[in-house]
Write a structure and sequence with these properties.
With 244 residues, this protein is α/β, with parallel strands linked by helices. The protein has helices at residues 27-34, 88-104, 113-121, 130-133, 151-157, 222-243, and strands at 5-9, 11-13, 22-24, 39-43, 59-62, 108-111, 126-127, 141-149, 167-173, 177-178, 186-191, 196-200, 207-210. It is globular, with a radius of gyration of 17 Å.
């Protein structure tokens, strides 16, 4: 059987003296899904998309990024300055992909910034800077911490979960986080300071995201493997249904 085709959105670096602008993706994303048996297709935001352009994909991943979603997309003024803002064309392209996933039932997995984009698309908001706006919270940049899992993800933790499968250890590389949760999203992971770190839409075949980077967890981390495999299983079901 042909491998699954997974489209992953790319990051972007503008032109600099002596260097052209670039679309790029960290190798850890590619390796993570390739190790699950999938082929990866990079999805830049450089053209106006149409629904029929993506009929070959079995699943979509919204990758994380250094830049942040401009606050206008969740109807707030910019309070964190200076900001490193994502190109609006990328936000709009990822919104298109989310909408396509909702219409067609394509499995969608958001990681870090992609997780935040999914929340904003569903009408949620973000904390623009956790260190300054929630200084008493966990350290969420270049750190690790436990997350408590919801009912839907406890079984994915397997025997490696902590405290009877309720908690798992995750990495943390973000300075923003979810403030108001988006519509029809069920919380499936929460950090010790109450920040939402994972969610899913239980009415969609697979519409889920995590604030951490499972692709950067150790290769033997069972929960990261379970998340990926659960996503790829949904992609396989989607492909089989599309071809039947």
């Amino acid at each position: 059987m042909n491998p699954l085709l997974i489209g992953i959105t790319t990051d972007y670096a503008p032109a600099e003296p002596g260097r052209d602008p670039r679309f790029f993706l960290k190798t850890s994303y590619v390796t993570y899904f390739q190790n699950g048996g999938a082929l990866v297709v990079l999805l830049p935001f450089s053209y106006a998309p149409h629904q029929e352009d993506f009929g070959f994909l079995d699943g979509i991943v919204l990758s994380g990024s250094g830049p942040d979603i401009p606050p206008r997309f969740y109807n707030e003024e910019t309070t964190f300055l200076p900001g490193n803002w994502m190109p609006e064309e990328r936000v709009e392209f990822e919104f298109f992909l989310i909408s396509l996933s909702e219409r067609k039932g394509i499995p969608l997995f958001g990681i870090c910034g992609g997780f935040q984009t999914m929340n904003v698309f569903r009408g949620g908001t973000l904390v623009q800077d956790l260190p300054s706006m929630r200084p008493d919270g966990n350290a969420h940049q270049d750190s690790e911490h436990d997350v408590t899992l919801g009912d839907g993800w406890r079984e994915l933790a397997g025997s490696k979960g902590i405290a009877g499968l309720d908690r798992v250890r995750v990495n943390s590389f973000h300075h923003q986080g979810i403030n108001r949760l988006g519509k029809q999203l069920k919380v499936e992971a929460v950090s010790g300071d109450g920040l939402v770190e994972g969610f899913r839409d239980p009415d969609h075949p697979f519409f889920a995201g995590v604030q951490w980077h499972p692709e950067r967890m150790p290769s033997g981390d069972s929960f990261s493997q379970s998340l990926r495999n659960h996503f790829l299983d949904a992609c396989r079901l989607y492909r089989n249904g599309r071809r039947s």
